[in-house]
Amino acid sequence: MLEITDLDAYYGESHILQGVNLSVQTGEVVTLVGRNGAGKTTLLKSIIGDIPRRTGSIRFIGTEIIDLSPERICKMRVCFVPEDRGIFSTLNVYENLTIGRANGDTAWPLDRIYEYFPILKTRRSQKAASLSGGEKQMLAIARPLYMGASFLMLDEPTEGLAPVVVDAIGALIKDIKSTGLTILLVEQNLQFAAEVADRYYVIENGKIVREMTNHQMAEDQQSLLDHLGV
Ligand code: ATP
C-alpha cells in the first residue's frame, strides 16, 4: 500500500532522513521505533507532505505522492494523528469529529464511531479540553476514521496514558485493524507495540537500521532494546 524508497528529508540545512526505505502492506500494522530525535515524526510528516524539502519516492497504492500537496495526500485518505493529538480543545467532541469532513459516504459513520467508542457518545457535548488523556486519544483516533481514513499514522498514541488506558487503546487498534485499516505507528512502548504490530522498523539518526517481524521481535527483544538504549 505504501512504498518508500530512498527518502531524504531536510529541515533547512539539516539533513534528517537519509535514504529511508520502508513499506507497509494493506492491512498491516507496522511500528517504527527509535530513540528521541531519530527522525520518526519527520518520517510520518514526510508521508503527509508536511516537510518542505524531501527527495526520493513515496508511492501510495501505486501513485507517486512525494510532490503532492498535503491537501491532495489527505484526500487520498492518508491520515496522521500527531503526538499532541491535534484535537480542538475549545470544540466539543461531536464538533471535533465532524469538522472538516466533506459530505459523502464513510466506512465509519457516526453510529459506528459511537459503537466503537461509546465514551465519545456519552461525552459528545463536552469540550475536548475537559476530556481525560485516554478520551482525548480515542477522539484523536476516531476523527480520521470518521473522515474516511484508509491509511492511518499514529505518533506515540500511548504517550502519557495510564496502563489501563494503554490496554484499551491497544484493543481498539486491534479492532480497527480487523476492519481492514492499514496502520503505521510510532511507539516507544515496546510491550504495547508487541500487542498490535506485525512488523517493526528501527530508525537511528535518520536511517532505517533494522527491520523485524513480530516473531523475530518476540525471540530477540533485547536487540531492539539495545537499539533504543533501554
Ligand atoms: P521524538 O521521539 O523525540 O519525538 P523523533 O524520532 O520523532 O523524536 P523528529 O521529531 O523526527 O524525531 O526529529 C528528528 C530531528 O529533526 C531532530 O534532531 C530534531 O531536532 C529535528 N527537527 C524536528 N523538527 C524540526 C524543525 N521544525 N526544524 C528543525 N529541526 C527539526
TrEMBL record:
Signal peptide: none annotated. GO terms for molecular function: ATP binding; ATP hydrolysis activity; branched-chain amino acid transmembrane transporter activity. Keywords: Amino-acid transport, ATP-binding, Nucleotide-binding, Transport. Residues 2-230 form the ABC transporter domain. Pfam families: ABC_tran (PF00005). It comes from the Bacteria. Transmembrane segments: none annotated. Gene3D superfamilies: P-loop containing nucleotide triphosphate hydrolases (3.40.50.300). SMART domains: AAA (SM00382). GO terms for biological process: L-amino acid transport. InterPro entries: AAA+_ATPase, ABC_transporter-like_ATP-bd, BCAA_Transport_ATP-bd_LivF, P-loop_NTPase. Belongs to the ABC transporter superfamily. This is ABC transporter ATP-binding protein. The lineage of its organism: Bacteria, Pseudomonadati, Pseudomonadota, Alphaproteobacteria, Hyphomicrobiales.
